């Protein structure tokens, strides 16, 4: 039955995107008349409300078979306080600050929808604390969405480096065991995000990363054209490499919602994980990548992930 749902979703997306793509010339005409230029103009304080990034996503699986790939990707970094539009389906600046308990700007890294379709395996909210005229990146909020179900989980993590109990079935070729080691730098001219999976049996067997560079705002005249079919390309890569993993006889794992209704209980597993987490001494408890100056203590501020789930979209719901 799920195969039929997938086929219906692909066919529906194809015809919707084809129709809307044919309308893109009219969108460009409107942009030339000032509509899009107003939407993406700079804010009054000089900060760009939307910055564009172009880079590469890289995946590597080392067990039970080796499989790796990379693809080009384009992202938008949206200042949720100064952008004149609210991205549909995402948190507002107010909601992100409330969740992260921060006081400064909130930036959202995401792939905008294109011609009626959205595909965002990972979106990030960079939550800053403001102290006078300076700002400090304090926390990030991850927004992870699985394919093809469209389920979503959000949680807080320390961008310097953090270990999070796996809260979502992101792939039919990965079980729910283990944890995510995640880190991200402050998005400036260069942007970096890395996630590795630490499995109870397979060890550190999977790594995914995003490396991107900020583009000059003058180099992109039409954002709709810049992101045209970008979500579709990401989906194609996901399905194509899923087919390759199946061909390599990597075990197919049924979605745990059919066998284990309690699979979302990540908070309990995460609290146990944090009790054995290395943290740097005398440095605001930032996680340290290595070295001897560390102690295994519970960091109460990092244990409050505030996991929140969104159910699967139709027709998977």
UniProtKB/TrEMBL annotation:
<protein>
    <submittedName>
        <fullName>DUF1365 domain-containing protein</fullName>
    </submittedName>
</protein>
<dbReference type="InterPro" id="IPR010775">
    <property type="entry name" value="DUF1365"/>
</dbReference>
<keyword id="KW-0472">Membrane</keyword>
<dbReference type="Pfam" id="PF07103">
    <property type="entry name" value="DUF1365"/>
</dbReference>
<feature type="transmembrane region" description="Helical">
    <location>
        <begin position="6"/>
        <end position="26"/>
    </location>
</feature>
<keyword id="KW-0812">Transmembrane</keyword>
<keyword id="KW-1133">Transmembrane helix</keyword>
């Amino acid at each position: 039955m799920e195969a039929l749902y997938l086929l219906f979703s692909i066919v529906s997306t194809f015809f919707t995107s084809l129709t809307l793509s044919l309308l893109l010339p009219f969108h460009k005409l409107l942009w030339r008349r000032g509509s899009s230029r107003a939407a993406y103009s700079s804010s009054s304080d000089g900060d760009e409300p939307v910055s564009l990034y172009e880079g590469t996503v890289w995946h590597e699986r080392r067990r039970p078979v080796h499989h790796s790939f990379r693809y080009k990707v384009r992202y938008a970094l949206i200042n949720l306080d100064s952008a004149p539009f609210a991205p549909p389906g995402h948190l507002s600046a107010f909601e992100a600050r409330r969740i992260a308990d921060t006081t400064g700007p909130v930036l959202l890294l995401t792939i905008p929808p294109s011609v009626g379709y959205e595909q965002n395996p990972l979106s990030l909210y960079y939550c800053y604390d403001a102290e006078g005229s300076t700002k400090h990146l304090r926390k990030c909020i991850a927004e992870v969405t699985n394919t093809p179900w469209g389920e979503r989980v959000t949680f807080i993590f320390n961008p310097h480096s953090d270990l999070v109990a796996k809260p979502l079935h992101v792939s039919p070729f990965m079980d729910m065991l283990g944890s995510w080691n995640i880190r991200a730098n402050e998005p400036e001219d260069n942007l970096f995000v890395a996630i590795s999976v630490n499995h109870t049996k397979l060890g550190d067997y999977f790594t995914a990363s995003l490396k991107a560079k900020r583009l000059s705002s003058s180099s992109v005249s039409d954002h709709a054209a810049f992101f045209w079919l970008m979500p579709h390309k990401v989906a194609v890569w996901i399905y194509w490499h899923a087919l390759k993993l199946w061909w390599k006889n990597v075990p197919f794992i049924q979605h745990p919602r059919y066998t284990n209704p309690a699979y979302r209980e990540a908070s309990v597993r995460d609290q146990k994980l944090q009790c054995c987490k290395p943290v740097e001494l005398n440095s605001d408890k930032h996680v340290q990548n290595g070295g001897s100056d560390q102690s295994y203590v519970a960091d109460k501020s990092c244990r409050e992930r505030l996991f929140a789930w969104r159910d699967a979209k139709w027709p998977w719901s």
